[in-house]
Amino acid sequence: MSKTIVNSWNEWDPLKHVILGKADGCCIPAPEPALDAKVPEESDMKGEYGPRTQETVDKANELLDNFEKILTKRGIKVDRPQPINHNQKIETPDWKSETMFGCMPARDVILTVGNEMLEATMSYRCRWFEYLNYRPLIQKYFNEDSNMKHETAPKPRLTDLDYRKDYLSDSIGVQKRLEWTKNKFFVTTEEEPLFDAADILRFGKDLIVQHGFTTNLKGIDWLKRHFQNHRVHAVNFPGDPYPIHIDATFTPITEGIIINNPQRRLPEEQRKLFEKNGWKIIDAAQPAHNSPPPLCYSSVWLSMNVLVLDPKTVCVEKSEVYQAEQIDKLGLEVVPVELRDAYAFGGGLHCSTADVFREGNLKDYFPNQ
Ligand code: DAV
Fold first, then answer.
1. How much distance in Å is there from the Cα of 358 to the middle of ligand 1?
2. Residue 292 C-alpha to ligand 1 middle, in angstroms?
């Protein structure tokens, strides 16, 4: 038997091996239908695209390298992707895109479930080829671990049929957006299965998946059929005008406790699964900032985008003092990690990482369904 390299069933078991993204060559992608729906109307990014400045790349990489050191010191093996040139035109028979995006948020692309690493379909054209940054690592795991499964979801066509034209307007307004997202009228249609890996949280036998801009119901159906030994649950969070990725909205911080964005509460009906099984869903603390850093897609709620190292230890972004205080009061150790100046490259501590190995086996945390 070869060595087990890939094994991770949930978000909180002791982390031993992780992929951490890089900021190299990251581009602000050119306009495209799904992306336009996500960039907030008042954002400083509207209309901008092309490579980010070397100065901001260097700063983000300095912080990411430091994050690597913190993890390594705690005995966690850290692997880094091999960045491809993101600043090049790409195309398929169906579309062209001026640039790609980058390889900082590894979590968006790779979903690890047990011994399997699954490359998500992704839902933006500029991110269609993003898996290539991670292929050297995944190939290595495949070669070294004879039990590891390398899977890739069906590549989507991403034609205009995948996106609702209603979202192309520049002046929808937050009120209308909130109404639409509450009614699950998202930018992506049900043309074909779509999902980003960061819409999925792993709770042993149960996978919790956010239905929103980046993951559609067909994508969730695909996941159900793919993970036949799991129970796959769709959730949605009214109150979020730009619902992409679950990890600034709903975050398990240890077994039994989830922090939920108080502006994006899980609807009553969907809370039952957690409550019936003795899990607590509590409001997350307020973010320490009133606005995101410059040229950043994500909201201030990256405050909740924590990386759990083990059931008693949580990495929290260094400036997020309220979030740190809340986690500390819950009796967990907080490891502060400075990363705010890397947020613009694709997210926070959870986004920038993808699990390779956590101790522990497949367990049923929700026996009462
Ligand atoms: O609140 O902007 C960010 C999630 C990034 N993976 C937000 C969601």
1. 24
2. 11
pLDDT > 90: percent of the chain: 92
What average pLDDT does this structure show over 174-179?
95
Catalytic annotation on 26?
no
Question: 140-167 pLDDT, tens per residue?
Answer: 999 999 999 999 999 999 999 999 999 9
Task: Please tell me if the CB atom of residue 247 comes closer than 6 angstroms to any atom of ligand 1.
Answer: yes
- Single-letter residue type at 166: D
| Model confidence pLDDT, tens digit, residues 117-137 | 999 999 999 999 999 999 999
**What's the mean pLDDT in 194-211?**
98
Q: Give the CATH number of domain 15-358.
A: 3.75.10.10
**Is the pTM of the predicted complex or chain greater than 0.85?**
yes
Selected catalytic residue, list 196, 240, 247, 355: 196
The structural domains of the chain, with segments of one domain joined by +, span 15-358
For the chain, how far is it from start to end, CA to CA, in angstroms? 36
Residue 113's φ and ψ, nearest 5 degrees, are: -130, 105
